[in-house]
Every structure is written in C-alpha cells, then in structure tokens.
Amino acid sequence: MIQEPSGQFDNFCRMSSIDFEYLLQLIGPRIKKQDTVFRDSIPTKVRLAVTLRFLATGDSFKSLHYLFKISPQVISLIVPEVCKALCEALRSFVKMPQNEHEWLEIAREFEIKWQFPHCLGAIDGKHIKIQSPINSGSEFYNYKHNFSIILLAVADSDYNFLFADVGTHGRMSDGGVFNDSMLYNKIYGPDSFFPQDAPLPDRHLPVPYVFVADGAFALSKRIMKPFPGTPPVGSQNRKFNSRLSRARVVIECAFGIMTSVFGVLKTNILLQPEKASIITLTCVVLHNFLKKSQHSYRMYMPEGNIDNVLEEQQLRSLDQVPIRTTENAREIRNEYASYFYSH
C-alpha cells in the first residue's frame, strides 16, 4: 500500500506514509522487541499498523487477527503498549498555555473567528462507550443507558485540544466531572497565568477572561454558560446565547472530527476502563498531531467536514441543570450580554 499511489495507505492508517514513518521513528525504540532463538519478534512497523488500524475501525482483536495474522491475545498486548508510547511521545501536542501571552493569543483568535472576546477555550464532555466493567455495578452506567467513561476536554478556536482528561465514571454529569478534574485546579489554581481582567472592546467595566460551556456546568467567574430557557427573539439574553453557542461549537466540532476519523470512538470499546482511557487519549493526541501535519491535514480535515454555525433564530432550548451561581458571575454574564447586544 505504501508503494502504490492509490491513497489506500492513507485511509488504512488515517495518515500519510510520511507521518507513519515519523511516528515509527519516534516510538520505535519504545515498542521494539528482541528476536529469540525460538521465533522472530513482530516488527515495530506492524505493531504500529495494527494499533492505527484498530483506532481507525474499532474492529475486534479477532477481526484484526485475520488481517494481520497475529493472535488476538498478542494484539491485546500490542494495542495498549503502542497507545501508551504514542501518548508519551506526542504529549507536547496537547497542552494548555504556559503564560499570559499565549492565553491572550488564544483569546485573540476566538474574537477574530467566532466574535467572542476574552474567550480562552470551549469546555465540554463526551461519553466514550465501553463494555460493562467487572464488578462495577452501576458506576459506569449513564443516562444514555449504556456504560461509558467521560472525556472532558478544552478546545481552542481552531478545533485543537488544549486539555483532555478521561476515565471518570459515566454516571457523573459534565459539571461533576469538571469539579473533580485537574482542569478545575488548573483554572482556579494559583498557577493559571490568566490575563488580568480588562474591559470588553468599547466598554469600561473590567471583566475576566472566560471559558464557554453548556448548561451542565455551573456559571462562575471563569465559566460562561447560556441563559436558561428560550429568551425572546431579539432580546439581549438571546443574543448572548447565540454568541456563546457560536464560540462553543468548536469543542463539538473537535469531538466530531476526531470521532469521524477514529472509528473506535463510535463503537463499544471491549476493554476495561484503564485501557479504554489510554486508547481515547491516543485519539486526542493524534487529532492534534494530524491537524498540525502538513502531510495529513487535508486527509484528516477535508473540505466540508466542519459544521455550519447556527443562526440566532435556529437556537433551540437546552436542558438546564439547576446550579446555584454567585451574584458576581451573573454580573459578568450580564456585561457580556450587554456588549453583544450593542455589537
């Protein structure tokens, strides 16, 4: 497939042969096995191909056995090992800004592309379906009536993941996962390096830089969510909900792009939560890697693969979770709403 100019290799591994060789060089020493007097080891190239094919299709290990002529038992060892090596090697592709200048650059891109100033990212959670874990009871059973772990992520204005945390029990809400996650500590901790509060364009009241989220999260100084219910057409609250939805679509699109390429996220992962978490994180780091690759970008994000932004009149009412918010947070949201209403 590498030699033929048919493009089948790109579809088989979900990346160009150049990026495949790059990853092979990057993780080869970590996954290479020694030959013995009894048998030759499985080549590193095959180990990587097996793993990428599993991520691309979500096929069972038995199905991959017929394709690669490797026993399902050995494949069950290869896939988590290669995924762990990929996560370690590509971890620098998923990281939050480390200083105020980098945060300001993200906010500038959000304002240019999505007309939402002072936005540092979009937050949301995604359920990753798994088989019922051993002796877990209902811990992983979610409101969609299946078993899952939750991927909590933050995306920038260009559909890149800035942060990802996966493995929390599926029965928890997105807001509950956020409150117990490292992301909460990063946002509200002393080492966040966020820009200083500043007025919105052509305004006078200083407001903080914020993240946008849906109604499952609690409104706070750093988290903006929509006004509840269905505000009247043309109202200030409806204008705010429209702008927030426009900015928040980036995290939904990031999940959609990743799921469309890595079919394993569409299936019921027949592994225990620990291994399913590693596989999910591998898809996240590969998402950012392939998006930023000049060799695989067009294949990974073809034209027309991004959802259109909903117009204001098409907004639908979102399910709201009754969460107590502070008066200060409501004042901040009202200031954003007033700004959007006048712009």
TrEMBL record:
Native organism taxonomy: Eukaryota, Metazoa, Ecdysozoa, Arthropoda, Hexapoda
Name of the protein in its database record: DDE Tnp4 domain-containing protein
What's the chief localization of this chain? nucleus
InterPro entries recorded for this chain?
HARBI1-like, HARBI1_dom
Cellular localisation = Nucleus
One GO molecular function term?
nuclease activity
Required cofactor names:
a divalent metal cation
Keywords of the record? Hydrolase, Metal-binding, Nuclease, Nucleus
Report the domain of life of the source organism: Eukaryota
Domain DDE Tnp4: start-end pairs = 123-288
* Family as reported in the entry's similarity comment: Belongs to the HARBI1 family.
- Pfam families in UniProt: DDE_Tnp_4
Q: Which organism is it from?
A: Parnassius mnemosyne (clouded apollo)
A GO cellular component annotated for this chain's UniProt record is:
nucleus
